[in-house]
Amino acid sequence: MILFLILAALSIVSSLLVIFPRSVVRNAMALAATLFFVAVLFVTLDAPMVGALQVLVYAGAIMILILFVIMLLNPAALEARPVAWGMVGSLAAVALLLELTAIFFYRPSSAEQPSVTVGFGGPEALAQSLFTDFVLPFEIASVLLLVAIIGAVALAKREG
Amino acid sequence: MIIDFAIIAAKAFLVLFMVLNLAGVLGWIERKGSALIQDRIGANRASIFGFAGMGLVNTLIADPIKFLFKEDFIPARGDRLLHTLAPCLALFPALVTFAVIPFGDVLVLGGREINLQVANLNIGVLYIFAMASLGVYGIVIGAWASNNKFSLLGGVRGAAQMISYEIAMGLSVMGVLMVYGTLEPQQMVRAQGELLGGWLPAWGFFLQPVAFLLFFTAAVAETKRIPFDVPEGESEIVAGYHTEYSGGKFLMFFAGEFAEIVTAAGLVTTLFFGGWQVPWLMRDGFHFPWGGAIVLSPLAVTVLQVAAFTVKVIFFCWLQILMRWSLPRFRYDQVMRLGWKMLLPVALVNVVVTAVWIVLRERLSNP
Q1: How much is the pLDDT for A108?
Q2: In chain A, how many domains are there?
Q3: B133/B154 Cα distance (integer angstroms)
């Protein structure tokens, strides 16, 4: 419980740091820190595989690419400007907040809480469900990613 | 309870202590060894009452003191916070990765079984890759916070290189994972204790030689040393991402590089060279394939295992230093071509071939 409180506080502080500082690189670093703390939360919740993948994929690869783009584009030249669709974004944020508040007050009865089985969250359990019960969604997602990669390459070829 | 906690703390301290000390000693080996390779004398200036100790006084006492007392320079228009954070981020992944590398089998001491590994995770190999992938932040953030175009170029090169070689590294380990069927380093090492054909140890190197070459190349590229040191490239971009670093912070980058060498050597040893396994050494002593046996006490076996692990790690550290002083630097486009057009396809082919081989072997053994 103490561990959870420390991790939760760290996650909240670092996610606030994502939006408040004016330096884009600091924001990106705060986002990486948030992803890392959430990954540690996953580990404490008996899901070490998800935690490791979170660090490996999000903090270790996607955030690096975002930093890469920021460094190449020199964000110092970017000025604050009115955001189009700002109203829609605010409404969506409020709707999300309400939804999360509802979850916060929801207390499941003990019968509804599934117990953690042996091997839960490990690589074997994840692979079993991924390659037997959910093999079709898994394959569809991989085809979607392949289409995105080919599309990106095709666009880059045409511009160059 | 308290004893269990003390054992874990002692193991963590011991591993951290050994990695950091080996990193320091490697600094000495690097300078004296390079002098040996290039027919020079090497570090011999500093001495205490005339005792220079083969340059040990110079590299292990005089140099760190000099680093710590130098001015800590931060560029005027750089980012002070991130400039300080970057060396810590560079040192952190190299030090924590060693936590899942086993340095011995189970040690039974006073009726208590001690697993000679700091943390036994069932996702061990994934943990290693997750931590290794965080290593990029140190150089990218350090390069950015320096507000220097040479640093920035070095940082961009470093990020591109490390992401490229991480992919080849991950795919090359896939073959090893498939052969041993586990993600736990300790179980992998145990599986490497078996014998092939009754005499050859089932080390990863003998089962997956291609994966070893790919992994070792990628691991050397991850340490950002020659022949893969384009992020530093002193003849092109001054010193790359750590151009604007001095004093203790530069020492941290420097120590991080050597700690990465130690970690890479530990990984190669664990995955491909049997970790703590000594050929034909079982739990009760040696059983030679040509007959005959030497019975040993469990404590002696454990000492031999830890010694074997240490010798293997030091050998691969030395091999990396030897490579660094023997080879010229790749050009940037050559680094990228090697990573994406050679290592990656070969790693994919290796995965496919290994999968076919495993399926065929299963079919043949129980038709």
Answers
A1: 67
A2: 2
A3: 18
- Whole-structure pTM value: 0.84
Task: Pick the residue of A20, A24, A26, A57 with the most B CBs within 10 A to test the interface with B by mutation.
Answer: A26
Residue A108 lies in a domain: no
Per-residue pLDDT of chain A (160 residues; tens, 9 = 90+): 788 888 888 888 888 888 887 778 888 888 888 998 888 888 888 788 888 888 888 888 888 888 888 877 766 656 666 667 778 888 998 999 888 888 877 776 666 666 666 667 677 778 888 888 888 998 999 999 999 999 989 988 876 5
Q: If we measure between CA atoms, which residue out of B81, B323, B131 comes closest to residue B221? A: B323
Q: What is the ipTM of this complex?
A: 0.78
Whether residues A1 and A70 fall in one domain: yes
Q: Which of B85, B122, B160 sits opposite A123 (nearest CB)?
A: B122
Whether the CB-CB separation of A44 and A7 falls below 8 Å is answered with yes
Q: Give how far Cα B154 sits from Cα of B33, B143, B148, Å.
A: 27, 7, 10
Residues A129 and A62 in one domain: no
Chain segment B301-324, per-residue pLDDT in tens? 888 888 888 899 999 998 998 888
**Same domain assignment for residues A61 and A130:** no
User: Within this chain, do residues A65 and A6 fall inside the same structural domain, yes or no?
Assistant: yes
Chain B residues whose CB is inside 8 A of the A68 CB are 140, 156, 159-160
B160 contacts on A by Cβ (under 8 Å): 68
CA distance A153 to chain B (A): 15
Binary contact (B140, A68; C-beta < 8 A): yes
Output the domain CATH number for residue A29: 1.20.120.1200
A17/A70 same-domain check = yes
Is the CB of A40 inside 8 Å of chain B's CB atoms? Answer: no
Structure tokens at B188: 């992998």
Domain that holds residue A66: 1-77
In a domain, A51, yes or no: yes
Does the bond joining B227 to the residue before it have cis omega, within 30 degrees of 0?
A: yes
